[in-house]
Amino acid sequence: MHPVFVELFARPVGWLLIGGTLIMVAIGIGVPLFIRHRERMERAAAERTPKR
Question: How confident is the model at residue 12, as a pLDDT?
Answer without folding.
Answer: 81
